[in-house]
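Exercise 7 asks you to align residues with tokens for two separate proteins.
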Amino acid sequence: MKTIVCAAWLASLLCAPAPARAQTTGLPETIPIFPLESPTLFPNASFPLRIFEPRYRAMIADALKGNRIIGMVMLEPGHEAEYEGRPPVFPIGCAGLITEYEELPDGQYTILLGGLVKFRVMSEDNSRPYRLARVAAVPEPLDDRDTAALTRARERLVELLAALSDQFGDVQIPPGIPDEQVVDELAEHVPMAALERQRLLERTNPLARATTLVELLEARIRIRR
């Protein structure tokens, strides 16, 4: 199935303010986790979701009464037979803050999650109908050299997006958007296999993700020639 990134949607996300970064000590030890078939959230980006399953509607209702933090994780392959239970998930996920929400008349929710920080699942707590996990934050340090390299990688990504406008549309990235946000929004929305996106999430920091994205887009240009 061919997937095309919606340029207007991506541009609107890039124009939104970057979510406040969670400090390592600021992530609660236990958070609700929402497992899906593909990673949907990166630390410096935002992602919209529609919540319809009763157990996860309960999760959102509880989160809105508390700190509004939930964790997004990817289900391991072969989860289908156990989906209604608690099938295995990849250990690395991303915590997000519910920055916007709407409760619909039928009890479903639409939410906007702002990425905060990656985490590692240490264990699970089965005290709720939905899934809770004990987690440890996974910081993504960047030194001055990394920051300079990230800016160069962002410039290369802009060039590659322009060269691939037939696939991605005319994506206009405002110059004032932080490099980390640009990279992580692209990491969420550039079409790729779910496992490939999970490996991208697991990279050390935004510079490592940017390097991988550059390689991915350059490969697509080579294939097209």
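Second protein for Exercise 7:
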Amino acid sequence: MQPTGLVTLTTDFGQFDGYAAVLKGVILTINPQAQPLDFTHQIEPQNVAQAAYLLHTGYRYFPSGSVHLIVVDPGVGSDRKAIALATPEYAFVAPDNGVLTYVWDAAVARWGRDKLTLVELDNPRWWRPDISTTFHGRDIFAPVAAHLAAGVNITELGRPLDELVRLPLKQPAQRPDGRWEGHIVHVDRFGNCITSFTREFLNDVGSDESIEVHILDQRINNICRTYGDSEWGMVMALIGSSGRLELAVRNGNAAQLLGVGVGDSLRISTRQKSGR
């Protein structure tokens, strides 16, 4: 990976305190040529799973050579590892708490494990001199990201690791009645419920016209193409920009209307074509 100097920041810090700005200050002090850029600071506090999903939806749209810094770290100061991951296109700096689960799985599937470099950040040469037990984002993660963006080789940052901590992601599973059960993995600010059913998975199950979606007492008879393809106030299903099946309400909030959230289940089935 040839670094560009771009460093994205994903945190649960919000904007009220100065924590996010401090990360940028540390990065620019170490590497004045760096370009720190906010990915999001609105992760729910300590919500590692939410951060993992949102990072996965966006990291690949940045220029090759970008460094992605993630500080959602409820285990800060504990014995959880600090890690860095390099793929042929991007580098990631984060706590080893599952926040890189989606990134890791996608990278292994695309490039293979041998093309990835994973290290524990155990070399204090690349940290700030005084380490707080409650702000490793400032004292360890941001300095390391700045050095990576300046061209330091990831192998200098610490000892190699074979694996990282992964979240227990629920994959679609077939039920005894033949339906496939999946789960809501994210609810965005519009109330759209994004699920574990990917476009590729649905292609293997059936056509958009033949798939039925079942959630609570609702049955959705087909997958729409756009948000405008449904009647007002009706729950619809479509493939969103994340490449996953999502439930939405035209100019409304599907999560509120259904009373569902992350972790809740839904099912899909296919209608058989009628013969003559």
